[in-house]
Amino acid sequence: MGKGIELGFDYIDLELKTEDARRNEIINKAIESGVTTIVSHHDYIETPSSKDILFLMKQCLEADGDIAKVVTTAHEFMDGVDVILAGKEAKSQNLRFTVMGMGRFGYLTRFLGPVAGCEMVYASLERGEEAVYGQVDIQTLNSIRIKKINFESAVCGIIGFPLGHSLSPLMHNAGFKELNLNFVYIPMEFPEEQLGTALEGIRSLGFKGLSVTHPYKRAVMNYLDGIDERASDIGAVNTILNNEGEFIGYNTDSSGAVGALRDSGIDIWSGKDKTLIIGAGGAARAIGVPLAKAGWEIIVANRTPAKGKNLADMLNSHSSTTAISISEIGDAVSDINLLINCTPLGMKGYPSESPIPVNLLRKDITVFDMVYSPMRTPLLMAAEKVGAKVIYGHEMFVRQGVEAFELWTQGKAPVDVMRKVVMDELGEGSI
Ligand code: NAP
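Above: the input record for the complex with NAP. Below: its predicted structure, written as tokens.
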């Protein structure tokens, strides 16, 4: 360690548990040479309470460190929350520190270090070369503009399980950057049994907004202070706004899907036609409800017939809807004008196949695939081949994101920038 000082390092890091005489000797040498000292405590077992983390930080500073560093092991989402809360308290007491979590749930602390008031964050130079489990690579941290965010940043994020490679962080952070807003958007993955406590933690950290994805779009409704009318009609929430401490649920999937149809020439409210919806999950409800309210004739085909029937029964209160089995699709497509895929078939990580036999496609059917990665799914490629009009899933994805962005920021979203970053990531450039 003394060697580091001789070599001209700006910072040296030594463990709190270093024997007192040795630590004092190194610190005195550092002071003489103008080197900043970090005194660290690592807990490889657990994450203590935020009060105890703060106590540990103070011990590091009392050992004459310029900066305290406390590193814990995060076993669940709330551990990360405790670390950030300890940081916020330390910042309010004007301490110099950094604090973070290792392990599967350390990610929250890695993304939000500057929001907690940390003086520095640690990262690997490359993905896959992390020094400890839970560390995040510098490219990922740059993508959320880690150098720009601070104690005052408004925090948004996406919850889901598994989250996979969601494009939402990329899209929203690009929007915040374009408008120079002090906002950050982070991915947060945790299993279902943690949903309730994780939302409590998210509230205690004062998040401004959330996106909600699979499988929490319905379950999350149990933890909100209010649900807007559209989300309540659909029975699913994909966006949450923290409105002065109240978490209010919205459904922007629905308006995103309706907007994607409108911009491709189908105004669902002005011309009632006949549509086949494949799937009966949250996405099918998000488009099924407005179509039914607009008076469209609807056929629902789902892998699990009982779920298809449930959705059809719900839509039937607005307009004529029938449920069929997947094997009956051949007859059903004969007089439809619009086909909507609301299953993950064709999506990265799922079977790369069309949800219906492609020989059933015709030039006069508009085909809308909600799957957006890849952009050109087997269904859409086949539809393009027969000369049908196609609607890409990213059109809905960008629209639902834009509406969420505008709820959180109360300003106009930079739509073109958000769309471009998504399409560049999908490798499609502009079409
Ligand atoms: P969900 O609630 O889990 O519902 C999934 C639906 O797909 C269910 O009806 C399910 O049938 C069916 N399904 C699942 N795997 C299948 C398979 N291998 N073969 C046939 N059917 C299958 O999911 P969701 O939220 O509705 O999302 C559905 C799709 O829409 C996903 O790909 C999602 O990424 C996409 N989406 C896109 C956007 C966008 O902005 N573009 C927004 C929301 C969703 P069972 O009832 O038999 O399980």
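Notes for the reader.
Residues 368 and 391 are 5 Å apart (CA to CA).
The chain has three domains: 1-152, 153-251+400-431, 254-391.
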